[in-house]
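Notes from hallway chat w/ T.B., transcribed later so I don't forget. T.B. wanted the structure written out for a chain they're using in a teaching module, and asked if we could keep both sequence and structure tokens in one place. Agreed to drop them here.
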Amino acid sequence: MFGVKYQYEAHVLQQENRRLQQAVQGLRAELAAERERSLAARSRLEAMQIELGKCLLKFGEAFLHSTAEISNLATLIQDETGRVRHQIEACAQNPAAHSRDGASGMFALSRLMDGVISASTLRSFTEVAKIDHLVYKFEIYKIFMGLSQKEAVDLADHTRCRLGSWYYQGEGRDCFSRLPGYRDMEGPHRRFHEAGRAAVDCFHSGQHDEGFAAIARMEAASTDVLADLERMALSGETDASLLCRSQVR
């Protein structure tokens, strides 16, 4: 009897030991999986920090660039204004010499001045739009970093931001719609806002992988938007005849 009882207890102990081993293995697997998830989350967080730093750097560069561009354009406008003023003074001092072709000369100068002002207006706006663009991305990165509690509804869509209002309702449509890059920009600009808002929705619903995928789409669209803005500004500076289609010049 003692031998049978001993064998039974030994069998029970073996079963318990087997169950404990299985539990330990399961716990080790869960710990390993949790470690992998933690490492993946840390990697994503580090990537987000890097992108946030890049965004801040681009913001600073864009601000400095826009300041320089606006300063250069102000100088150009002053130079052209001086040329017009000099021509007017010359006509006033010697009206007989300028009576024949003075009108055509003044008209040409007026056209030139008008083109410079229109191009400078476009350049100034595109630089501001680039900064707005970076600020929008910065807000989304802040949400992912836990620095902001904003939700997708707090972020403007592609029709309500400054660029969208200019594009669909303001002088963008009236004056600059013939420029290369204008029509090309609509799709990427819409995708940029849609992806950014989708990323925020995913973040708040705990779908972090989907959120990071949406951020990748946002960044891809962002590159196209910035390129189209620059193409528009350069085209306006190169060919003033493409500017202000709806206005009588």
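Follow-up for T.B.: The radius of gyration is 32 Å. Might be a good example for the class.
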